[in-house]
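Schema walk-through. Below, the input block comes first and the output block second. Nothing else is stored per chain. Lengths vary across the set, and this one has 266 residues.
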Amino acid sequence: MLDPYRLLRQNYILEPDGVWAPRYEANFGRDSQNQEWETRKQYALFEKKISLNTVANYYSIPVMDHEIERFLKKLPRGAIIADIGAGRCWHWRRMQNLRPDLKILAADFCRENFVHAHHFLGPLINNQVFLIQADAVDLRFPRECIDAYWSAGSLQQLPPDKLPSALNEARRILKTNGLFVNYSTNAPLAHGLLAKLLGKKIHQSGYQKNFYLQYATNDYLEITRRAFPGLTLRYCEFLFYPGRFLKWSGRERSLLGRLETVHNLC
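--- output ---
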């Protein structure tokens, strides 16, 4: 198994806060994500201690916990995972119990997001999960060094000028026959109908304030399949929708959230 310390030391340096910072001149905040980068920094510094109930406004914790377990079952012993756009890293909080043999390279271009990762991960940091300030389009990892690429709601936030480059970078660092997993928000049928009744429109693509968001539209899928032609599509949420109706179903112990995993138990 490749040692993450050896993998990272050439282009990153471990700093006192536990984050691996780039040795090279990085481009954070100097491209089309400038406003998003500044906004995320402000949010992260403004937010106090983050709980899973806060996370549940944006992710269905029962569904994502189930998806993590499903994902980990597919990986060989000693595998290395790259989580791109890892943010708070809350979804890796159970790794010591689920798969203590695996290592995660958790990358995010906004270093301030990692402040909250310490709350969820504790001693897992730099033992099993490595926090790295890096951009999805410029991962200074060796070619074909990781077994799996994981992204949950991050690639969909890349503007059109960056998404193809990020996907090509994913291909570069993935081993032959490596696993590519990308979760993107879809507009669930139930919410589409409810929004129509209420005279509201569900966002599909474009900027919302300072953030670019492109949900799982046909254009988005076409761009993704150019880099990964064999990509298959699977739905894991039908009721939960981030920041909108039924968002309470995303809480860790939500019965509705657990029921949402029943359709996909294998």
